Amino acid sequence: MAQFHNLTIKEIIKETNDAVSISFNIPNDLKSEFQFIAGQYITIKKKIAGKEVRRAYSICSTPESGEVKIAVKAVDNGIFSVFATTLLKNGDSLEVSKPEGRFTLTPNNSKNYIAFAAGSGITPVLSMIKSSLNNGASFTLIYGNKTVTDTIFKSELDNLKEKYPNNFNLHYIYSREDIENALFGRIDTANVNYFLKNIYKNSVFSEAFLCGPEKMIETVTETLINNNMQKENIHFELFSTPVDNSEKFEIAAGNTEITVVLDDEETTFVMSQKQPILNAALDEDLDAPYSCQGGVCSSCLARITEGKAIMEKNSILTDSEIEEGLILTCQAHPTTPKITIDYDDV
């Protein structure tokens, strides 16, 4: 179960006008807790204006560096992101959970990777790139932003291109600036095909990693598959809650007796089927794990061992994982008179 540790901030760097990177001091006795795989994230817990806020942020440093570093970009009405980019300073402390997440890359020096990232979606991908290059693999990055000044980690990426000219291919796409040696537009079907069918028509990519808004991920995934990449070799992570434009999700109006297994303890209570399982557990003062509460991360993952549930949204779990009983409890509603969910068995 997620355990939070009080970490002090080692350094805050202003990366763009509205984004900062934050690195943490990791005490020697916690170094094993904060080992991670490239692509994973940490959850930060902070009380702001009397309200506890939890947010997940991907790690942009590499496992080999021994450093835990994240990037935070301010978003409209973002409670923590605005706080982090305007008020947080070196030496402050935050409650931080150990790394987790399923959007990961363990480098293989015989593989040729490609990634498509937009905006702050570069954060986990940067960790993957550096780890891959450090281990002798090849990497191609297509990185979309509005303008050059909006481009998080541009200097670091350019330096990597200079350091690894034979192993690292770097391409920028800007939607609001026409820049020499960069494409104008967005990461859309036409531009993805431009790279796959022209520049890299003689290349075979082992795996693809996508991080950005839902529309971009859907478009790139479809285009990669149309260019003969197997779906199981395409990995993605959303950096915001997906927008659901479908008809309103129909939820039953009944009640369910739910048993929650958490930290080797069982708690049974009655909940409304209209309420997400995570919310019901939190209302019972259970310390259930969570972060985004929007179905984007996997912090609230649990397994159904009795009964059934349906999820409003799911952009993370595969069909086989759902068949095994895994659910995102922030999106799951029980549909049977009784249900048992186990947070420990994931």
TrEMBL record:
- Domain 2Fe-2S ferredoxin-type positions: 256-346
For activity, the cofactor(s) needed are: FAD
Enumerate the Pfam families for this protein. FAD_binding_6, Fer2, NAD_binding_1
Record-linked InterPro entries:
2Fe-2S_ferredoxin-like_sf, 2Fe-2S_ferredoxin-type, 2Fe2S_fd_BS, Beta-grasp_dom_sf, Cbr1-like_FAD-bd_dom, FAD-bd_FR_type, FNR_nucleotide-bd, MRET
Give the Gene3D superfamilies listed for this entry.
3.10.20.30, Nucleotide-binding domain of ferredoxin-NADP reductase (FNR) module, Translation factors
Give residue ranges for domain FAD-binding FR-type.
2-106
Tell me which domain of life the UniProt entry assigns to the organism this sequence originates from.
Bacteria
Print the keywords alphabetically: 2Fe-2S, FAD, Flavoprotein, Iron, Iron-sulfur, Metal-binding, Oxidoreductase
**PROSITE patterns assigned:** 2FE2S_FER_1, 2FE2S_FER_2, FAD_FR
The name on file for this protein is Flavodoxin reductase
> Could you tell me which species this protein originates from?
Urechidicola croceus
